[in-house]
Amino acid sequence: MARKIAVVAVHGIGSFDRRPSDSATLSFSADLERLVRSRVEERLPGAFASDVAWREVFYADITEENQNAYFSRVKRQLNFDRLREFAIKNLGDAAAYHTARGDPNHDVYRRIHERCAETLQALEDDTFEAAPLVVLAHSMGGHVMSNHIWDRQSDARLSVARVSSCNTIASFVTFGCNIPLFTFAYSYDQIFPIADPGSGLPDHLRPRRWWLNVYDKDDVLGYPLANLGAGYKKLKDAGALADRQINAGGWLTSWNPLSHNGYWRDSDFVDEVAKILVRLLKQV
Questions:
Q1: By its UniProt entry, which SUPFAM superfamilies does this protein fall under (predicted)?
Q2: For 184-213, what is each residue's pLDDT tens digit?
């Protein structure tokens, strides 16, 4: 029996364990899924297990191929190996991810978005083609999914309401989001966000606030979005975009830059995601 709601989690910059063999085998989002499941089941017993399909977009193995090869060649030739590895695997992700039209050797962007498309198609198969989709995108994953949605919205062939077309998105949740770092080639008036990605949903499943951006002020890689550009301000003024500041992480991480990885288990963030799913489960 098809499930009613699709959830896709997308990781950000950094180093991760080996890619699971299937997008339904959870890795980086396993703790978040477990905690959200518990909160939802408290409100709606049995609903999460029967009605929610949760999958991951895992792309770290794509960006780390050349990073690992280079680091192995320079390892122990320089000082601060561990710090340099951290820099390579974090800054290197952002550097590797860009479009390079006309360069046949540069296909990182294409390969990452193939992963996005594969996972969304699998979620569509898990649910039904026009099921409401919740996107949970961390760090650079917010930029990846924003691009993926933008590309889908620019393709007239994908106008049919489908999970894989990214036009049944009921909630786009970014956290520790660094979209601003990818926009500095443009002025304030030239920066525009994606359009409402819920055009394929019935009106009762389309919330006024469809983009929730969660950040911690101690997280140097996570930023508010409402003041990024003219288009983002327009979204915020219309009530479609909300920036939410939380104190992510535990007592060792919540007060410093390590909070960037604290969202996945943070109680406040778990509550935000659970509320979104409870609302949808009551409406579908």
A1: alpha/beta-Hydrolases (SSF53474)
A2: 889 999 999 999 999 999 999 999 999 999
Of the candidate ranges 4-8, 57-61, 210-214, the one whose mean pLDDT is the lowest: 57-61
Cβ burial, residue 211 (10 Å; 0-12/13-18/19+): buried
pTM of the model: 0.91
Q: How high is the pLDDT of residue 155? A: 86
Sheet holding 5-10, edge to edge: 52-57, 5-10, 133-138, 169-175, 211-215, 241-245
Q: Please report the sign of the dihedral spanned by the C-alpha atoms of residue 270, residue 240, residue 149, residue 109.
A: negative
What domains are there in the chain, each with its CATH number?
Answer: 5-283 (3.40.50.1820)
Query: What is residue 141's predicted lDDT score, i.e. its pLDDT?
Result: 96
Element spanning 213, H or E: strand 211-215
CA distance linking residue 239 with residue 221, whole number of Å: 25
Percent of the chain clearing pLDDT 90 (strictly above): 66
Count CB-CB contacts under 10 A for residue 259: 26
The 10s digit of each residue's pLDDT in 208-267 is 999 999 999 989 889 999 999 999 999 999 999 999 999 986 655 554 556 788 999 999
Q: Are 121 and 164 in contact (CB under 8 A)?
A: yes
DSSP for 167-179 reads --EEEEEEES--G
Tokens of 126: 């898990």
d(CA 14, CA 249): 17
- Rounded-to-integer distance, Cα 154 and Cα 19, Å: 30
- From residue 221, alpha-carbon distances to 55, 120, 129, 242, 258 in Å are 24, 26, 35, 18, 10
CA distances from 20 to 53, 58, 136 (A): 17, 8, 18
110 CB burial (10 A radius; 0-12, 13-18, 19+): exposed
What sign does the CA torsion over 235, 240, 244, 248 have?
negative
